[in-house]
Design a protein that fits this description.
The chain is α+β, with helices and mostly antiparallel strands and 198 residues long. The protein folds into 2 domains: 30 residues; 158 residues, Mog1/PsbP, alpha/beta/alpha sandwich (Protein Transport Mog1p, Chain A). 25% of the residues lie in helices and 35% in strands. A hairpin with a 5-residue loop joins strand 1 and strand 2.
Amino acid sequence: MTTRARVAIGVIAVTLLAVALIVALAGGSQSSRPRPGHFAWLHPASPPIGWNVAHTSGGAALAYPPGWKRIESDAGTASVALLRGGNRIPDQIAAYLNATPQQGPETLANWTHFRLQHNRDEDDRDVRLIASAQDLSFRSGRGSCVIDDYMTSKARYREIACIVSSSRSTGVVVAAAPRGLWVQQATTLERAVSTFLP
């Protein structure tokens, strides 16, 4: 075998080894795991500059944009809303965010069933699952999420609802808007969910 042939074989071997190493590292990386289609928007990140942060009694952090208002909610939770024309009447909510500490038997494993049943227990009607996913990445842990539609006495809503568990705590984040305003509000709601810290 000539020197030139040995050099060519050596170069090919080194190149194949490098390619194999790159593929192995990429395949083992958590960030390379694809997110399910309906949740491709979920990119854990700090809140955008200028956003405010509300906290639950358990310390969960819910980021929301300027112009949104804190609204009354259950003890220990944090709720904010974008109100139409500054109106404080509940049926004038254009978009809504809520953070709640884990309060019962909800888990990452049972989240889809639990959330849909919770909506029915709240007297919501015609609850429809759009999408669900488990083992999603959040800023400080893993989460399970649903996207669903439901009907209240006032309007049809769409929501993203996620349970997120970190080494410190478990919390729930809900982002909702009237179905007719969903397209207009979805990007903001998705961004808020992406910043959630339980």
